[in-house]
Amino acid sequence: MTSYPPAESTAAFAANIAAVRARIDAAAARVGRAPSDVRLLPVSKTVPQERLRLAVAAGCRELGENKVQEAKRKHSEMADLDVAWAVIGHLQTNKAKDVAAFAAEFQALDSVRVADALDRRLQMLGRSLDVYVQVNTSEEESKYGLATADVPGFLAELPAFSALRVRGFMTLAEFSTDEARVRACFRRLHELRDAAADPGLGELSMGMSGDYEIAVEEGATCVRVGQAVFGSRALPDSHYWPTGTETTPPR
Ligand SMILES: *Cc1c(COP(=O)(O)O)cnc(C)c1O
């Protein structure tokens, strides 16, 4: 596992962001893509607001969080700053009202129930929200997201939710040191997008600190990078991606 040094100053953040950006640009160039077609979304989960303020001073205008409670707290703590918040983790219907209220985008849509809950809240607020459909391209049971076979049927349901602006697809690749297996996940997402053949669904959010260069080579338009920008997290990934089934409260 690569270890990433923590950034503790605006200059250190600027350097980390520039280094990641240079690698994105190089990966894009290798496959003949325009670097400007790839957005770097810094993922700030577990990082306290004191350090986030340094990152914002270094130029971050968007931050990604995988837990709604944490994102909501930081959004209000940092309300004085011009930051767009992206929720990139699984959402339970009872938290849809929070996401509808503060998020600029939601990248982990994987059920009609959540689409419906978000849409109702957004309609009440007179807002709309950019969303990405999360796909479980590795087909591991522990991961959230739709099975690839269920994607076309799911997409067909979404026009009913007019406050959701569906932009494209999101995935987490298999956690593997075998590059071919990781690449295969990104390819699967790219193929799904092509199969959808809808110019409105052009976005591919894929790639994290350990694999974003591969993702860019495979067509990512958004990479979600945490540790390479903010430094290594203390806890293992299993802490952030809980396994097992969850129970959702009745509506
Ligand atoms: C944490 C997280 C990332 C970023 O992972 P890093 O290893 O910190 O780059 C990307 N996507 C999601 C959904 C995450 O929860």
Can you describe this structure?
This protein is an alpha/beta fold. It has one domain: TIM Barrel, CATH 3.20.20. About 40% of the residues lie in helices and about 15% in strands. It is built from nine helices and eight strands. It has helices at about 10-30, 50-55, 70-75, 95-100, 110-125, 150-155, 180-195, 210-215, 225-230; strands at about 40, 60-65, 85, 105-110, 130-135, 165-170, 205, 220-225. Strands 2-3-4-5-6-7 form a six-stranded parallel beta sheet. α6 links the parallel β5 (about 130-135) and β6. The radius of gyration is 17 Å and the shape is globular. The protein starts with 9 loop residues before the first helix and ends in a 21-residue tail after the last helix. The model is unreliable at about 245-250 (pLDDT under 50). The site of pyridoxal-5'-phosphate has 14 residues, from β8 and α9.
